[in-house]
Design a protein that fits this description.
There is one protein chain. This protein is α+β, with helices and mostly antiparallel strands. Strands 1, 4, 5, 6, 8, 9, 12, 15, 16, 19 and 20 form an eleven-stranded mixed β-sheet that branches. A nine-stranded mixed β-sheet has the order 3-2-7-10-11-13-14-17-18, with no helix packed on it. The longest helix has 16 residues. The protein is globular and about 65 Å long. Helix content is 22%, strand content 32%.
């Protein structure tokens, strides 16, 4: 295996570790490597350039799991770990030669006010105006009438199943809307089989059944789409004057108003992105960026990190030279908190943090820079201030 292959493979191991999806062997491998940092000259050289939230997270988990009996790692795996840690070197966090970056961190002032991460929850509004709370307590069978069955699963998935196509011929379109609150997320499988992952503070309006020659939905917030291919019936996602037209492909749309941009990121296939001012055709790996009004010029970005854009769907916060305000916007939505942005320092970060971590754990990782401080206050408020230089 050449160095490039090793780096890519080990990047995936680190991602699985941070997202909580690593095997027991991978967890042991990563944590044992961390524990051995700084024990010889070569490793000291490594620590001079390792810096990321991912490594900070490893440090915390390794400390928590320190009571477990360590096992001996193979030389091959040890070398492979070095490759991936080199890959995730960043700019915002610095690790000292001593490797004691975790022990030196001052704890976040949580005052017993720690906040749990978001969960699978949403509100479904049916065509007749009735509203249904979707959470773990909601019954599996939502509706079964007129040839259409709506069900939910225990893992946050709403499913539309057409039982009788004939029943929908020549009928007018009836719309449903699913809306996630701050601290919520949900997945919908639409009547055509299209899968939509809805992030926090987002909504999707869609027909109960796609009749006619078009499949139109309306989005606010953020969603990831896996559209079922149908060359005879294009799929359109409309949001803030933008129209994304596809036949069948995978893409992510971020339309949060507090980000002041609309970003459409394509993973596979091809999509057309247009508004009243311009049109772009995206290829896989490309992203369109525009303002939040329909007359904004749509610009093309080709140096996009797709994993950053879709990390939320995979249970991660993942940053690549991201501004602190952008990071806090995500944290605010996912933990349903309020943040005073008046004193936010102009900093940029790299790294990964799992979305299933408590708020204090995420803040602790950000504090590892040594010059920013967080305090969780009453009423789900978060105070941000400059730390000591």
């Amino acid at each position: 295996m050449n160095s490039f292959d090793s780096r890519k493979e080990l990047q995936k191991i680190i991602q699985r570790y941070v997202s909580g999806k690593a095997t027991a062997e991978e967890i042991l491998f990563v944590e044992e490597y961390y524990k051995h940092l700084g024990q010889n000259e070569n490793e000291l050289n490594l620590t001079e350039i390792i810096s990321s939230e991912a490594l900070n997270f490893i440090a915390i988990k390794a400390k928590i799991n320190s009571s477990k009996k360590p096992k001996i790692l193979s030389i091959y795996k040890y070398a492979a770990a070095a490759a991936v840690f080199l890959f995730i070197a960043g700019t915002a966090f610095f690790v000292s030669k001593s490797g004691k970056f975790f022990d030196d961190v001052k704890p976040v002032q949580v005052q017993n006010l720690d906040i749990l991460p978001g969960t699978n929850k949403a509100t479904l509004t049916l065509a007749d105006g009735s509203r249904i709370i979707l959470d773990e307590k909601t019954a599996a069978n939502i509706s079964n009438r007129n040839g259409l069955k709506i069900t939910k699963t225990n893992n946050g998935q709403l499913i539309y199943t057409i039982l009788d196509n004939e029943n929908f011929k020549n009928k007018t379109i009836s719309y449903n809307t699913i809306k996630t609150p701050k601290g919520g997320q949900y997945q919908v499988i639409l009547p055509d089989g299209t899968k939509v992952w809805l992030n926090a503070a987002s909504s999707l309006k869609y027909p109960e059944v796609f009749v006619g020659n078009m499949r139109n939905v309306e989005l606010t917030g953020e969603a990831y789409f896996e559209v079922t291919k149908n060359n005879l019936k294009p799929f359109h996602v409309k949001s803030h004057g933008q129209d994304v037209a596809v036949l069948g492909t995978h893409f992510n749309i971020n339309t949060y108003m507090d980000d002041q941009t609309i970003r459409t990121t394509l993973l596979k296939g091809s999509v057309s992105v247009s508004n009243l001012n311009s049109t772009l055709i995206l290829k896989p790996g490309e992203q369109s960026i525009s303002g939040i009004n329909e007359f904004s010029k749509i610009k093309l970005a080709t140096d996009v990190d797709i994993e950053d854009e879709t990390a939320w769907k995979n249970g991660l916060f993942q940053f690549n030279n991201a501004g602190l305000k952008s990071i806090l916007n995500q944290i605010e939505r996912w933990y349903d908190i309020k943040i005073d942005y008046n004193s936010i320092p102009n900093k940029r970060y790299n790294g990964m943090v799992p979305r299933n971590a408590k708020l204090s754990e995420v803040l602790k990782m950000l504090e590892l820079t040594g010059n920013i401080k967080f305090e969780i206050l009453e009423g789900r408020n978060l105070k941000v201030s400059q730390g000591k230089q």
